[in-house]
From TrEMBL:
Family annotation (Pfam families): BCCT
Record bears the keyword Iron-sulfur: no
Protein name (database record): BCCT family transporter
Source organism (scientific name): Methanolobus vulcani
GO CC terms of this entry: plasma membrane
Major location category of this protein: membrane
Keyword annotations: Cell membrane, Membrane, Transmembrane, Transmembrane helix, Transport
Length: 511
């Protein structure tokens, strides 16, 4: 094995750092066929598809909800432990490699591709929903509001970024330190050896592709729901499935075009401007919203989150069995796992030249802090309006989760302007996430090529859009959640095995 060339399959030689890798026929066609059959099934018989997915959902949550909790906590602790260990100084690349991107550009691309759409969608809808229906105790009380904010921080905090960080770290290490292709299967070379180039490696990569397709489909569906709600709130455009499909089609043209133009031209530009819009909207909320309340909730909820960290991490809702944990925590953990190969691969792609410790600190701590500030700004504002001013935020959430942001903004000056900014922000997150995902899917199905062809990226852009549209048509938000949990389950075991393989490789490197 040389540093930059590997025999990939059937004797072909591939340099993963140049556009010399053709598609991996097995991974591409098997993944595309499965995703295509899903889209076709949903188009022909949406009712039966919804029934099957709901059955899968019920079985997974009832039988393995506890495993999701243990696995995700382990992923977080493992990533943090590697950074704090003697392996933290190992560079993700050659010893003299330097980072390709500035810290700001790196963090902007990392954050916007990671969870931008979800934060915009849930930053108000989730705390208000928990205030009405908390995991335990009585709803509609100040205690329920505090508990709700704590769980919002929990769902969007260290656990989510722990998954992304772990997968990204493993991929970056094998890609840039060992000179292997940008494939999930490459991570398993210390365990499987050359068998990663055969059926086992192909199966691992197919699982990664499918998890990415359905995870992205969920996120894009949420984005379409929120864009439609914003347009309906501002311009009385009907809030219907047909309009949402049109939105998906329009944005698909944008993100597929961005992916085809290349990562430097497309993703970096959109990511930076999306962050500027996000910072502007958040600053507006700090200035015109209940500033003191926002800071109070940010500080107190962070303390409560840290104090109850392990209790929340291992709570299974075993006694009351309200189904709250399955609807919220398990959904989120599965969603983040499904996003693991996509976000991890993309973060790895932009992180060459950083040490293991720098990578973990940047990918784990910085986005978590930003998420907490964002959630406090919007969640505290919405709770303040609902509890002390009777602004009807809870009624809006009950009627349409996606409208919560726009109803909240309508209580402050220049509501039309800030609502339009919010829509632009959702579109920016939408395009950036799907853009990065399309790029990663191209890599995964092109033998790890760092420059997959425009045709391959175009195929996956259309496929993601089709999956998102079918999920919305067949069952709306419930179908989106169900697809994430179903797709993530097998990939959870892949990440568990990834931990052992990475540790084995780091030991060899350090020695």
């Amino acid at each position: 094995m040389t540093d930059d060339k590997l025999v990939i399959e059937e004797g072909s030689v591939c340099n993963p750092h140049k556009e010399t890798c053709g598609i991996s026929k097995v991974v591409f066609y098997v993944s595309f066929a499965i995703a295509g059959l899903f889209v076709l099934w949903g188009a022909i018989s949406p009712g039966s598809l919804n029934t099957v997915f709901n059955a899968i959902l019920g079985f997974t949550i009832d039988s393995f909800g506890w495993l999701y909790l243990l696995a995700v906590l382990f992923f977080l602790l493992f990533a943090a432990g590697i950074a704090l260990s003697k392996y933290g100084d190992i560079k993700l690349g050659k010893d003299d490699d330097e980072p390709e991107y500035s810290d700001f550009a790196w963090l902007a691309m990392l954050f916007t591709s990671g969870m931008g759409i979800g934060l915009t969608f849930w930053s108000i809808a989730e705390p208000i929903t928990h205030y009405i229906n908390p995991p335990f105790g009585e709803g509609g009380t100040t205690e329920a509001a505090e508990l709700g904010m704590r769980y919002v921080f929990f769902h969007w905090g260290l656990h989510a970024w722990g998954i992304f960080t772990l997968v990204g770290l493993a991929l970056a290490y094998f890609q840039f330190r060992r000179g292997m292709p940008g494939l999930i299967s490459s991570v398993f070379y210390p365990i499987l050896g050359d068998r990663i180039h055969g059926p086992i490696g192909n199966a691992i990569d197919v699982l990664a592709v499918l998890a990415t397709v359905f995870g992205l489909g969920t996120s894009l569906g949420l984005g379409a729901l929120q864009i439609n709600s914003g347009l309906s709130f501002l311009f009385n455009i009907p809030n219907t499935g047909f309009i949402q499909v049109l939105i998906i089609a329009f944005v698909a043209l944008l993100f597929t075009g961005a992916a085809v133009t290349g990562i430097e031209k497309g993703i970096e530009f959109i990511a930076k401007w999306t962050v500027y819009f996000a910072l502007g909207l958040m600053a507006f909320m700090f200035i015109f919203g209940p500033t003191t309340t926002i800071f109070d909730i940010l500080v107190s909820t962070t303390g409560s989150y840290l104090n109850n960290f392990f209790a929340m991490s291992l709570w299974t809702d075993a006694i009351e069995q309200k189904g709250w944990g399955g609807s919220w925590t398990i959904f989120y953990w599965a969603w983040w796992i499904a996003w693991g190969p996509f976000v991890g691969q993309f973060v790895a792609r932009i992180s060459k030249g950083r040490t293991v410790r720098q990578f973990v600190a940047g990918a784990l701590i910085a986005p978590t802090v930003f998420s907490f500030v964002w959630l406090a700004a919007f969640g505290a504002t919405a709770l303040n309006l609902e509890i002390f001013h009777g602004a009807g935020i809870a009624d809006a959430v009950n009627a349409d989760l996606a409208s919560a942001v726009f109803v909240t903004l309508s209580n402050y000056p220049i509501a039309m302007v800030t609502s339009i900014v919010a829509i632009i922000l959702v579109i920016g997150f939408f395009v950036t996430s799907a853009d990065a995902g399309t790029f990663v899917l191209g890599m995964l199905t092109s033998n790890g090529s760092m420059e997959p062809s425009g045709k391959v990226k175009g195929v996956w852009g259309a496929t993601i859009a089709g999956v998102a549209a079918i999920l919305l048509i067949t069952g709306g938000l419930t179908a989106l959640q169900t697809a994430s949990i179903a797709a993530a389950f097998p990939f959870m075991f892949v990440i568990l095995a990834m931990c052992y393989s990475l540790l084995k490789a780091l030991k060899e490197d350090h020695g």
